[in-house]
Amino acid sequence: MTEAPTTKHRVVVVGAGFGGLFATKTLRRVPVSVTLINGTTYHLFEPLLYQVATGILSEGEVAPPVREILRHHDNLDIQLGWVTDVDVAQKTVLVNAPDGRERRVPYDSLIVAAGARNSYFGNDGFAEHAPSLKNIDDALELRSRIFHAFEMAELEEDSEARQRWLTFVLIGAGPTGVEMAGQIAELAHRALKGQYRHADLTQTRIILVDAADRVLPAFDPPMSHAALKRLSTMGVDVRLNTRVVDVDADGVKVDSAGGGERIEARTKIWAAGVAAPTLGHRIAEAAGAETDRAGRIRVNPDLTIPGHPEIFVVGDMAALDLPGVAQVAMQGGRYAARVIKGRLAGRPPTKPFRYFDKGNMATISRFSAVANVGKLHFSGVLGWLMWLGVHLFYLIGFKNKVTTLMHWVVTFLGRGRPQRIATTQQINARNALSRTPPVPS
Amino acid sequence: MTEAPTTKHRVVVVGAGFGGLFATKTLRRVPVSVTLINGTTYHLFEPLLYQVATGILSEGEVAPPVREILRHHDNLDIQLGWVTDVDVAQKTVLVNAPDGRERRVPYDSLIVAAGARNSYFGNDGFAEHAPSLKNIDDALELRSRIFHAFEMAELEEDSEARQRWLTFVLIGAGPTGVEMAGQIAELAHRALKGQYRHADLTQTRIILVDAADRVLPAFDPPMSHAALKRLSTMGVDVRLNTRVVDVDADGVKVDSAGGGERIEARTKIWAAGVAAPTLGHRIAEAAGAETDRAGRIRVNPDLTIPGHPEIFVVGDMAALDLPGVAQVAMQGGRYAARVIKGRLAGRPPTKPFRYFDKGNMATISRFSAVANVGKLHFSGVLGWLMWLGVHLFYLIGFKNKVTTLMHWVVTFLGRGRPQRIATTQQINARNALSRTPPVPS
How many separate domains does chain B show? Predict the structure, then answer.
């Protein structure tokens, strides 16, 4: 289909995460033509991904289709594909379609918001044994591994092997590690209680390891303290000042001031470092920009790349001294869109980007969370009610809110974990790694 | 863990579908020890599988964990694994665990209820291009293909190639084929309406092919007529007396009295034949029983195998002249359990198994279904309300009922399709077949 050539200013937005989505939303009534390019068909509500991995929510509830969210945008073209490179001279991005074909998309302004991926700090071989939790595939893989571990413990007759299936190691005590540790504890001690006959789920060991000296290091120290206390009450074994030096199919090796130790565990979850995606390096190279140690691009105070006022970098890909949370990306995306709008209207340059910190929160278990809001601290039930309110508020506009609320009622008031499916495709992909014959379908 | 030897009568139930589940439920208060062996951790509510494939329900909603459903059964041991063989002399079944290990489980009575799988009538090569819809993996694969097809149509610039992405062929006009055709029509003409900019979804072609001379041949002819009329109104192109002779990546070849024709279509769905799983042949061989053309085992009027009163075959695996519906399996499972109970109580043999036909129903679109109940016929809105009532009734006992109802409200009153995820694992597995490079995760 050919279209009439447009004389409108063309904005290309890379990524439909919080940054890209809010940039696009802010441009809705601006006389530009927007192309939003994303590698998947959905926006990922990443703060709730741990609930998919632990059977509370379905994947559709945290990953609404981008076309559905933005269906009323008349100036928008949504394209499925991965941006792999940028030509700053020709002002085009190179896009890989899922069928392997490449195409170039021209831009007048470019907003890069491709997020972050997990970093194994050079030990990429760990990934197979300790998946991270950054996307839907990760969450479904972890869901499959966690629920499968309890089933295998039930089948296993050797007590050491059974304990290995009942041991879960979480590497990294940021919000993801803490939330996953809390949820696995709830699974073992509450949701799955009484459903197994041979495996004794009270023997479940959940070990949370971090090289830092406190959990949730991005929070104020009293919150770290409250979280640690709650985790201990739940039976989570928290090992601080402890570094993971090796990961294999049957366990991890850790090192601390007290010496080295091996922990036997079938299920390991990587919740440690993040790094910019490869695209960050390609763009930095193409635009002659600098990157920091994590591969994030150094930007001007207005989020543009030095020498390229037409290229904005927002969210986790920008080297700002800010936490990798949704709010930073949302505010960055909105800011970039406003700068473009202002320029087109001939207004003088806007003020530099300033992040307004609305606070930070992490759930530990049902009815228990910690939250920092400015100088205020909330923990326990109060923190949890804040978490609930904020998340219900941000789910507005997503049709899944009502069913999400229902699933929370089932999980928090009842004991249900409605989403526990492991697919045969997942099991066979893992069996292929260990040369076990495929299971029939 | 070793257990005290039991002197109780040991019942092994193979399969946690409708047959196995109802046999186990019926044995709850009977002084026997029950071992339920299933290849997955969930019971599959197969009549709603098409709603997973078309984005209405999440997989967890149609596949509740067996341990959750049967958590109050004290005489029950649930084991994950595939039964691959039976030793009728030693009275043991051979079980394959997901880690490839084998074990033998002894029985005094055996209830075999492993269901059916799809049959490609000897053309197993069709499976890759035209997946069937018998399990969760199938439903998720079809969901991924269907929603992906609309995205690829949006990206495609060549009009023939685009039309190929917008053409869906359903092979088999039984309930699955009819329900899928209706749902794809609703997707194209209602749920996804207005969400694409380049692809014109009004050009979507949905072709339903069957060698029989009417749709829904298991229903009374007036119902077939009503269904056909409704499908035509929705724009579904129904080709009766037409046989599919070849399937490849880009289309199908069909043959009818009018001659042969090739239909170009990227998405094909196999909803034609069913056959007994391989286990049926193994058991028939071991027990010296006969099988019919579809591989189903010929049984006595009390559902036992001739010469083996301790082995019952229920549901789709038994060669009875009955439809392959949930009710047959449920009633068969309950019957077998009652025979066992009666024998243990020393009661004289019960009457032969008699199927009580509660009726047959299939939805065509929202607010439209056909239903046979005895001699009564319902179609249109009335049929749909019956469908709704019956399905809500049978979902009782599953915690997901409320969220399922909410999803139906969203889908039928609104236009939402909350579950549209294609995983990277699925896309890459397909790309591997066509040698396309993997997409990044």
Answer: 2
Question: What is the secondary structure of B7-37 as a DSSP string?
Answer: -SEEEEEE--SHHHHHHHHHTTTSSEEEEEE
Judgement on whether residues A290 and A264 belong to the same structural domain of the protein: no
* Long-range contacts formed by A411-416: CB under 8 A, 24+ apart: A411/A56, A411/A191, A411/A366, A412/A366, A412/A367, A414/B399, A415/A190, A415/A191, A415/A193, A416/A191, A416/B68, A416/B399
The amino acid present at B274, given as its one-letter code, is V
Contact B37, B14 (CB under 8 A): yes
From A267, A268, A270, A271, select the one nearest A175 (Cα to Cα): A271
Quick one: A293 and A268 in the same domain? no
User: Distance (Å, rounded) from C-alpha B317 to C-alpha B346?
Assistant: 28
3-state secondary structure of B328: helix
Helix spans in A307-346 (H): 326-344
Among the candidates A317, A344, A371, a domain finishes at: A344
Active site residue A261: no
Quick one: pLDDT at residue B294?
Answer: 85
> For the packed helices A401-412 and A380-394, what is the interaxial angle rounded to 10 degrees?
160
Domain that holds residue A28: 9-118+275-344
Task: Name the helix (H) or strand (E) containing B216.
Answer: none
How would DSSP label each residue in A117-146?
EEE-TT-TTHHHHS-B-SSHHHHHHHHHHH
* The one catalytic residue among B46, B141, B156, B179: B179
> Are B292 and B223 in the same domain?
no
Query: Is residue A2 in some structural domain?
Result: no
A55 → chain B, closest CA residue: B60
Residue B351, burial from CB neighbour count under 10 angstroms (0-12, 13-18, 19+) = exposed
The SS3 of residue A263 is strand
Q: Which residues of B touch A197 (CB under 8 A)?
A: 76-78
Are the CB atoms for A395 and A63 separated by under 8 Å? Answer: no
Which residues of chain B are modeled with pLDDT < 50?
1-2
Is B144 in the same domain as B197?
yes
Among B121, B97, B93, B440, which residue's Cα sits nearest to residue B270?
B121
Report the range of poorest mean pLDDT among A177-191, A342-356, B85-99: A342-356
Q: Is residue B158 part of a domain?
A: yes
Return the residue matching tokens 């960055």: A332
Task: Count A/B contacts: CB-CB distance under 8 Å.
Answer: 192
> E strands within A39-190?
76-80, 82-87, 92-96, 102-106, 109-112, 117-119, 167-171
Residue B261 C-alpha from the chain's centroid: 30
Catalytic residue among A46, A141, A179, A186: A179
- The residue type found at B198 is H
> Which residues in chain A have Cβ-Cβ distances shorter than 8 Å to B154?
78-80
Query: What Rg value do the Cα atoms of chain B yield, rounded?
Result: 23
Q: Are residues A127 and A185 in the same domain?
A: yes
Two tokens at A72? 């009323």
Q: Are residues B245 and B155 in the same domain?
A: yes
pLDDT of residue A1: 43
Q: Each residue of A200-238: pLDDT tens digit?
A: 999 999 999 999 999 999 899 999 999 999 999 999 999
**CA separation (Å) from A90 to A13, A279, B30?**
17, 17, 78
Indicate the residue among B271, B297, B320 that finishes a domain: B271
Q: Among all residues of chain A, which has the CA nearest to that of B198?
A: A1
| Residues B266 and B127 grouped into a single domain | yes
Interface predicted TM-score (ipTM) over 0.85:
yes
Instruction: Report the CATH number that the domain containing residue A50 is assigned in CATH.
Output: 3.50.50.60
What's A225's domain CATH number?
A: 3.50.50.100
> Does residue B410 contact residue B416 with C-beta atoms inside 8 Å?
yes
B261 and B146 belong to one structural domain: yes
Residue A277 has pLDDT above 70, yes or no: yes
- Nearest chain B residue to A147 by CA: give it: B41
